[in-house]
């Protein structure tokens, strides 16, 4: 064999061997990329609930998007509260691997993880724009994963209501003293604040709020905003509807995932899940903004509801108590302190920008001479 032919033979042999080796290495990845996954998602909210279960940007919408984007490789069957497990047992079900996903709000798990509440909302905290900026670009999402890692869980934001109403009251609120002895459905960090002024805090699933308020088991209730509140029929049980949004300037829907199940997904399916969740985060908030104004007008004009802001002195006092309460609670636990410090530092920086952007603009359009 001539030297030229030998070189040709050796080169071709080497190329063939390399190609065979690459095929052997790549084969498992190809097989894994073609694998189909069938998952279950539970939900803290009842069947048919707008935003929280059905509609644009809802968990059902998320499941549909994932199936379509993955071309059927990841199929998620959705179960509203009570269809597979009770409303507030999603955390345990996902942690145990009974289901792969759950849709809820992280502040429901405050009894297990105090820091989780910061990933839903913080009183006098960040609005929709601000909380998304913190989560996606300010280290918030990384902290969320750090907090949940010991529990074998991963979480992503999947929705946001925007600012919420203070709530429904059977009697008018004229001073801070009116809160003393009040029985109120209110979850999250705001409940800690209300306790400091004598409120008896109740944590009830959405479906139990109306009957409790109607029967006088509770004196006041906070849920979401005009559209969802009207659907629950809260206007039939109370007529005083207050706002300021102090307790929930935004409210994040949590997509909770079993970490082992998450890590079993190939990278492209993980990317689909994350992008579908982020799309629903935007779409759900847009839906709320599109529907709340008309719902509020209907409540006032057709149901005799009085919609108004809390008295200024009440809000001022609540703000002072909030700062004290959050500092005290955060100091009890290192991981909560870490999340708290990150959130508050970002909030303070973000407020500097909001003070010269959003605030002046809203002042102009809400004034009598402003644009309509």
Explain this structure.
Keywords: Metal-binding, Signal. GO terms for molecular function: metal ion binding. One of its GO terms (biological process) is transmembrane transport. It holds the Pfam family DctP. The protein has 372 residues and is of the alpha/beta class. The protein has helices at 3-34, 59-69, 90-96, 128-137, 140-148, 189-195, 209-214, 226-232, 259-264, 267-303, 312-330, 334-356, 358-366; strands at 37-43, 74-79, 101-104, 153-160, 167-169, 183-185, 200-202, 220-221, 240-243, 252-258, 306-309. It has a domain at 31-159 and 250-289: 3-Layer(aba) Sandwich (D-Maltodextrin-Binding Protein, domain 2), CATH 3.40.190. Helix content is 49%, strand content 14%. The strands form two sheets. A six-stranded mixed β-sheet has the order 7-6-8-5-9-11, with helices on one face. Strands 2-1-3-10-4 form a five-stranded mixed β-sheet. α2 (59-69) packs antiparallel against α10 and α11 (312-330) packs antiparallel against α12. The longest helix is centred in the C-terminal third of the chain and has 37 residues, at 267-303. The termini are far apart.
Question: Keywords, please?
Answer:
6-stranded mixed β-sheet; D-Maltodextrin-Binding Protein, domain 2; 372 residues; alpha/beta
Concise overview:
Substrate binds at residues 164, 185, 222, 248. With 372 residues, this protein is α/β, with parallel strands linked by helices.
**Measured distance between first and last alpha carbons:** 90 Å
Biggest sheet, strands in spatial order? 7-6-8-5-9-11
SSE order, as H and E? Answer: HEHEHEHHEEEHEHEHEEHHEHHH
Structural class: alpha/beta
Residue fraction in strands:
5-15%
Helices, by number, come to 13
CATH class of the domain at 31-159 and 250-289, named: Alpha Beta
- State the total count of DSSP E strands: 11
Q: Using the alpha-carbon principal axes, give the shape.
A: globular
Q: Determine the mean pLDDT.
A: 91
- The low-confidence runs, each spanning 5 or more residues with pLDDT under 50, are 1-7, 9-27
- The CATH superfamily of the domain at 31-159 and 250-289 is known as Bacterial extracellular solute-binding protein, family 7
- Main sheet: strands, sense, barrel: 6 strands, mixed
């Amino acid at each position: 064999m001539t030297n030229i032919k030998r070189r040709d033979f050796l080169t071709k042999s080497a190329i063939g061997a390399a190609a065979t080796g690459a095929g052997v290495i790549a084969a498992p990845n190809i097989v894994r990329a073609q694998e189909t996954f069938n998952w279950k998602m539970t939900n803290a909210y009842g069947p048919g609930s707008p935003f929280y279960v059905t509609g644009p940007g809802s968990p059902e919408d998320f499941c549909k998007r994932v199936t379509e984007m993955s071309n059927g490789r990841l199929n998620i069957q959705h179960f509203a509260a009570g269809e597979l497990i009770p409303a507030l047992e999603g955390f345990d079900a996902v942690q145990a691997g009974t289901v792969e996903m759950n849709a809820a709000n992280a502040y429901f798990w405050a009894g297990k993880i105090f820091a989780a509440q910061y990933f839903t909302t913080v009183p006098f905290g960040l609005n929709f724009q601000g909380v998304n900026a913190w989560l996606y670009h300010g280290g918030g999402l990384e902290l969320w994963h750090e907090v949940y890692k010991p529990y074998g869980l991963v979480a992503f934001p999947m929705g946001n209501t925007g600012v919420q109403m203070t709530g429904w009251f059977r009697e008018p609120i004229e001073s801070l003293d009116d809160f003393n002895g009040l029985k109120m459905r209110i979850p999250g960090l705001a409940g800690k604040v209300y306790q400091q002024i004598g409120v008896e805090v109740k944590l009830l699933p959405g479906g139990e709020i109306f009957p409790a308020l109607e029967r006088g088991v509770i004196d006041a209730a906070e849920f979401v905003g005009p559209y969802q509140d009207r659907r629950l029929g809260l206007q039939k049980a109370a007529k005083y509807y207050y706002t300021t949004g102090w307790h929930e300037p935004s409210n994040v829907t949590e997509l909770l995932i079993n970490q082992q199940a998450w890590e079993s997904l190939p990278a492209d399916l993980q990317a689909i899940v994350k992008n579908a969740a982020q799309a629903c985060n935007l779409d759900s908030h847009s839906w709320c903004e599109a529907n709340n104004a008309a719902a509020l007008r209907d409540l006032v004009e057709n149901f005799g509801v009085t919609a108004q802001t809390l008295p200024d002195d009440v809000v001022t006092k609540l703000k002072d108590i909030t700062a004290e309460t959050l500092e005290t609670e955060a100091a009890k636990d290192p991981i909560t302190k870490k999340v708290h410090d990150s959130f508050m530092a970002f909030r303070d920086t973000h407020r500097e920008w909001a003070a010269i952007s959003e605030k002046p603009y809203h002042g102009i359009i809400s004034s009598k001479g402003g644009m309509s």
